[in-house]
Each structure stands twice: as C-alpha cells, then as structure tokens.
Amino acid sequence: MKNNKMQDLELCSIVGYEHIKIYQQKGFFKMTSDSLALANFVKVNYKDKNIMDIGTGLACIPLVLSAKSNAHITAVEIDKSVADIAMKSVKFNHLEKQITIVNEDINDYAKRSHINSYDIIVSNPPYFSFENGYLNSSEVLSKARHDITLELDSIFSISSKLLKDGGKLVLVFTATRLIEIIDLYHKYHFTIKRLQFIHGGIGKGAKTFLIEGSKNGKEGMVVSFPLILNMEGDFFV
Description:
Layout lengths: L8 E6 L2 E9 L7 H9 L8 E5 L5 H9 L3 E6 L2 H13 L6 E5 L2 H7 L5 E6 L15 H7 L6 H11 E12 L3 H10 L2 E10 L6 E10 L6 E2 L3 E3 L5 E2 L1
Parallel strand pairs: 3-4, 3-6, 4-5, 6-7, 8-10, 8-11
Antiparallel strand pairs: 1-2, 7-9, 8-9, 11-12
C-alpha cells in the first residue's frame, strides 16, 4: 500500500463504540470482526497500567481498549503506511496521550523494552505459515495473513519477557491451529484462563477462537459461550 492511498480512506464508526471512529482503506485494508471480537474479549481492570498490541494494523484493538481502560497502550505495526493510517485514527479521536503507535518490527522494539513491564499483551497475528498457503499479491496483506515478519513463537517469547508475573497474553487465532497455540502457552509458562470459540453461523463449526493465558498463573480455565457471526459479520451469542 502506497502513501498516496491515503486519499482512499473512509472514516467509520466501530460497532458497539459508535463514538470511536477509525480510518480504513476502501476495498483494501479494513478492520476485521476478529480484531473487534478480541478487543471485546480482553478484560482490563483498574490496576492495569500498560498494554501492548502486537501487529496492531489499523489500531482497532487499542481504540476499543481506550474506551475500557485508562491504561497506556503501545501499538506496534511494522508497515509504515498502515501505521500512518492507525496514527490518523488516534489523532482524530484525540487519544495521542493514551495510545502510542510504534512503526517498527516487534522483534527490534522488544529488545529495547523493559522486561516485566506490561500488564496485558494482545495480538491478532497472521493465521497462516509462510511455508503453507497462497500469498496475496499485496505485500501488506501477505504480511497480515502469513507469518513472514511475525512468527508465533516470537509473540510468545516476547510476551513472556515483557509481561509481569500474572500478566495476560490474549490472542485470536484460527481454530485449525488450537493445539499448537495451547502448546505454545505451556512452553512459555502461561496458564490458560479463558477460551471462547467464534462460529461463522448457527450450525457451523468454529472458525477462530479467543484465548487468554496468565504468565505463571494459577490453574483454572473458563470456556465461555460461543460467539456466532450473523450474515452481516456482526456477533450475537
């Protein structure tokens, strides 16, 4: 996506948060129902002071979280053109003091970040392995959908380093790789606390799932009622 595509932006309300506006690119790079579901799934309490969103894209998740918390939110996005759009939304909503957009590779940014400094890390990471699956002709969309620059193992290792004890790593991911995700939580000493499946319609199997793990947390997991997508891509239980 080139910078001259800024002229193709449209300003939209976020479903359920109509007072928050987000810029999207017409017919190209848009907010997804998975990102919105993840933002709604995250539980924030008054003690949480620092949140990170890895691979923030258009910053849907930080924008929603800003309505749920006064915590500072660091939103990391490797693609400059996408980060620029995210920053435009942050400025439009006058949230510059709460949301910081960082245009950098998370692997590099994490090296300079303080360990044990975050209360919550969220991510809607690429669902597909670079070695498997069709790559989109758009470099931006390929990076968003395939782990070209953001590998799953890196998300977990970085989160294990940056989260405080008891801090939460919250993800949305494709249901076909559930076991792999559970194994990674265990590998990096996270206890899975919550799990919720997202279905593409009534009577359809789960497409994706939402999951929360606590760093060195106590055992005990809750499986929530499933989320069902309707024809418009909105949710109802």
